[in-house]
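Why predict the complex rather than its parts? Because the way molecules touch one another can change local conformation, and only a joint prediction can capture that. The input here totals 914 residues.
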Amino acid sequence: MFNKMKFSLSARLAAKPGTARAGYIGKTLLIFMLAVPALIAQEFKAADVKGDVKYQAGTSEVWSEVKEGMSLQPDYFISTGEKSFVQIKYREQSLSIDELSAIHLASIKTMSTDELLLALAMEDMINAPVNDGKNRSSSTAVYGDKKGKENNLVNKSDDFGIKRLNGAVQLAGNGFKESSVVFAKETYRKYPDSKQIPLFRIFFADILYEKGLYEEALGEYLDSAKLDLNIEEKSNVESQIQRINKILLNN
Amino acid sequence: MVLNLKILPQSSFGFPGYRGLQEFVIIPFYNYESNQSNYFGIKDWGISLQYGAEFARTTLSVAPDDLTTDNSELDLNTSLYLLSIAKRLGNHSLSARYTPGYQKEFIFKTGESIIINDTTTQSLQANYNYKELFGLGYSYNFNEQFNAGLTMRFFSQDFNREIVKPVFGDTLYLVREAINEKISTGSIDIGLDYILNKQLQFRIASINLLNFEDQLTNTEFQGIELNLNRGALLTASYFPLELLNFHLLYETTNSFQAGVTGHTKGFIYGLTAFHDYYQEPFIAGVLPAVGYRTDLFEILLSAVKYFSDRYTNASYSKFFDEGINNIINNSYSFDKIVLSMAVNISGKPEKKVELIDIEITREIYPSFYDLYIDQPIAYGNVVNISGKPVTVIPSVKIEGVTDDQIQSPPQTIAPGDTVVVPFFVIIPDKYANEKTFLSYADFFISVTPLQPDAQLQKATLINSINSWDGNVANLRYFIKKDMEFSMNYSKNILSRNKSFLDTIPSPLLPFHKAQIIFNEFAKLIVYVSDPRATAEYVQFPKQTLDLKGGDCDDLSVLYSSLLESVGVQTALVDYKGDGEIRHVNVLVNTGLNPEQARLITTNDKKYFIRKDESGKDQVWIPVETTSLSNFNEAWNIGVEKFNREAIENLGLAKSKIEIIDVY
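Output of the joint prediction:
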């Protein structure tokens, strides 16, 4: 439910395009060579739990209750219900997951801008290559004689996509901006309806802009412009598009 | 009697007046005089004719007292000199010639006379006739630089002489009687050609290397038969320009010839001066020649001009003192005009291209049957040696692999240009050799489809049918190879589960097919770490099922093949590792869209989304084929590995992991 979506506006940082880009370009090579995947390979702990908080471990199909003080593994997915929250502690830090949010604990990691770029590039690598389909197997054997009857079979998620995006916003709010974008992008793919929410699209587009990834940000803003935007969102998106176009032209 | 008569029919003097070792010249095939190696340029059949005219009497009369007894006028005697035929069979060349005009007849007055009725005196005559009857030639072209061959020539010698025979009776009578004897003679010579390059070529040949002849029985004729002394012949030709070629020919009898020849736009010319040890002056004469040639025929008009007076009359004693050295060229030969014509019957074009060298670029893996349609197995350097653009058709035949020549796309080459030509090949479906072996590939370059203009042979390694080059993308060939078997196997499994599948909504069918098929074959198979102990050996699906085991490559090939055969799309995941052993497992396209993913799992980490070729999002799941307990376990293990290495560690982006679609 979008009307129950909550995210902190403080996560939306002011854009500083000139300095961000200059820093990015100047340090690209050095960062690329020295950057080490900074996954915080730590054990997480549920320090404070309120309401309906569940976890799903690894490849398990089961959601179990998170109890206060229990240790959590990086491959756990944490999901909070309405009016619920959990504070996750790791090392000397903590991260609060507010209500109606979902976070994959492995996403709580610092990433460099280059790693973010690589992660964004993976989308194209995952896709099947475009071909004319002539080489596909001609066999279309079907058992069960149900072909065509239930093609529109859909089991809607319980807005898990929105929960994930709420979680991504909170990741960004806690400084994990790069991984929040990756998490959001994965959410868009797995839950396509979540792509239709302008606030999230604009939020993560702003992060890309802030990181100096103008072409990637422009793509997001252009996609956002096709959505049903309010006046403020529309003005914001259009000004960002103009700003980026100017930057790209000058470069 | 006659002691020093020298008749050397094998010297190098010939009528054409145009010589050259150039392969494109047709003429040499009938000119055995200077072509003992039988080297010629026709590609199939050739016939030739030589017709000549001699400005002299047909016979020569010689008297012992230097008095001419034959005063007939000089006239023009024409006759057919030669007919010949030649055939080229690959590197072998054959030729034969018939030489009715290669003969010389001498009529002598013996010095004896008979007085009839005390009033009439009749001189006794001798008639010696030397003929070259026919010849045969053979040669073998070893390579572009060496050619060797032999020629055999057969002669006839016919001796007639009148004698006075006393008849004893009551009265002594003297009776005029003719005695005659005919003997056959032959000789065999060999020649070797060395073509250093297109500018410099050499020939060495024998003169009368092997001789055979009938023994004369009549002592009256002994000493006048053909004298087949042995000797040698050396030729050097230099071709600096088309219009200016130089030839030098030396015989060990201390005779030589020096000539220039040339050609342009089909027109040819030649001018040869010859020094004959047995004739005066030092340069005994010249042979000018002009002609015209095309790919189909050659026509040449040549002449022999002697610089000394020709003996229409000569003394009997002089003849026996000096002798003659050649049937067609001696002190008693006359100026001639000779028309030579040769026809290239097959009309095969002259060689237009050369295949300089071949570079084999890859080993042959027979399972990759259509890989070499796109990726050439070799490249050849081809040069256009003709004066016009030519379109060449490259082709290759591999011993023990292809039955026929496999043609590659044609290429057009500008005159004088050298281009790199790729050679592609298709491995026949039926190929099933399980052993690796060293074979030979014949590479052909053809301008016309009938006959290759150039060819080269190279050794090439042919791997076994199960060999694999380690490139995961090429596992697709093993997946596709047994598709019919896989289809039958999979259908059999699915048929046994028909009642269950009938209850499954169609969007979920691919997922459940993948599940059922995996669980069925997993019962039969055990994971064996590389059973053949080589990383390059991959089993076909049937082999894995027959052997009931396989490593990750074999099991991924099997599972992918079984699914693809019933329309479930798969891809291979290549975990390249960092110096570690590579690993392969399978991705399965459930065909579900993202909104339908929860129909198969409530855990969204267990799948990922790929856009298909039309841009539609589909749910794919990784399956670890070496985990053979059950499908769900294999799925879970596949997910953990894929998420960790491909997604979280950015393996896909860093090219450490690659997804390879089977189709």
